[in-house]
Structure formats: C-alpha cells, structure tokens
C-alpha cells in the first residue's frame, strides 16, 4: 500500500521524529533506510526495543496516528496517490461488481491506519484487505500474500504482487507469486537484491484489463 499506491513518506518521517522524543537512542535516518514494508509492531520492537505486548500495541497505534497527524505539518505534502494509481484503479473498478474478488491490498499497516490513509488518498477499500492484525508473521514471511490469495479464492501462483520494498518482494516470492518491484522508495540495486520478476518505475508502467478468467496485466519494462 505505502510506496505502491500511496506516498506517506512525509508522515512516516514526522512520526519517527515524534518517537525520537520518547526514544532518543533511535537513529531516524538508519530506520528510514531499512524499515519500509515491515509491520509497525515489528519495527518498534526492533528499533525502540519494546517487548511488552500491550505497550507495543499502544505505541503502534500512536505511531500510525502520528503518520496522519504530521503528514501535512511543516509544509509536508500529506498522504497522496503515486503516479499511475488513479488510472489503475479506474481499470479495476468494474471488478467490484463481480462475484469473486480480482485484487487485494496486503499491507504491513494496521487496519485503522490503512483505512484512514486510503480514505485520505481517495482509494476505495477493496473486498480483500489484509492488514497487520490478520497475520502472525508479516513481510518478508509469505503469510500476508498467502492469506490474500486465499481470500480471493485463487492459487498464489496465479497472483501478481506489486511491491516497492525488498521485504514485500521476498514475501510475495515466498508465497509463490510473481513479483513486480516499483522504484518508488528504493534504489534498483536494493530491489534487485530481492530478485523480483520485473522492475518498473511506478504504476504508470502497468495496465490491467478484466477478463473472464481474472485480470490480464500488461507490464511495460524499460528493458
């Protein structure tokens, strides 16, 4: 979701700066370079060294609330759609009237934050919506995409995963899905380390068409 459909970087930076006031030992720049695509609870456990499950859950809520609250502070641009997403959603919109879901969002964010962020960006909540609370092990483990495929009623091998972070690409691969890396938050070298099947700049390089068997996806690579 973040980095594939929407850009919430402004709020994420703001949230980590807020948390540095409580956890002064954290290195925000180091965190920003390695935390994307990972569940908030896992990042807070790792970087803020929070082990108590109740505190961890409460701090995760506080962190994701701070993403929204700080996203427009100090001249920041807020939570916005990434290039090509509006076109892609328009192409997928007829699928909402079909009996079987044709696409899903599998995010490391909590349901509360993900719902809020999507609404701010103007993205409808899909019929299949897998969030941090729905899985025991988040990305890079395969559980998020295995669950998404199950809820769509399809074999993971028939799914295409779009990801901007190495952890998400590894999650998709581990689930048996084809993976497409987007150069929206990481360098080509970072994405290549996770070995996606394709790499494109953003969703402008992707077109979809609904067909009887599912969704036909066209990917325009630079190669």
From TrEMBL:
Highest taxon of source: Eukaryota
Example of a GO MF term: sugar-phosphatase activity
Pfam families: Hydrolase
InterPro entries (alphabetical): HAD-like_sf (IPR036412), HAD-like_SPP (IPR051806), HAD-SF_hydro_IA (IPR006439), HAD_sf (IPR023214), PGP-like_dom2 (IPR023198)
NCBIfam families: HAD-SF-IA-v3
Protein's name in the database: Phosphatase
Annotated organism of origin: Amanita thiersii Skay4041
């Amino acid at each position: 979701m973040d980095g594939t459909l929407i850009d919430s970087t402004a709020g994420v930076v703001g949230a980590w700066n807020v948390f540095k006031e409580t956890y002064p030992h954290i290195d925000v720049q180091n965190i920003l370079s390695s935390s994307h695509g990972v569940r908030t609870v896992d990042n807070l456990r790792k970087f803020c060294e929070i082990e108590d499950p109740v505190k961890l859950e409460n701090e995760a809520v506080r962190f994701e609330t701070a993403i929204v609250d700080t996203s427009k502070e100090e001249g920041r641009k807020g939570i916005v759609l990434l290039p090509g997403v509006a076109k892609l959603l328009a192409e997928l919109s007829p699928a909402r009237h079909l009996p079987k879901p044709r696409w899903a969002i599998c995010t490391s964010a909590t349901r509360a934050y993900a719902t809020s962020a999507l609404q701010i960006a103007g993205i409808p909540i899909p019929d299949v919506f897998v969030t941090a609370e729905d899985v025991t092990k988040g990305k890079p483990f395969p559980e998020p995409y295995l669950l998404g495929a199950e809820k769509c009623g399809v074999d993971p091998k028939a799914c295409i995963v779009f990801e901007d972070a190495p952890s998400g690409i590894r999650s998709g691969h581990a689930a048996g899905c084809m993976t497409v890396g987007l150069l929206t938050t990481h360098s080509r070298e970072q994405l290549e380390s996770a070995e996606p099947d394709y790499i494109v700049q953003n969703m402008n390089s992707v077109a979809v068409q609904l067909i009887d068997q599912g969704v036909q996806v066209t990917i325009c690579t630079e190669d």
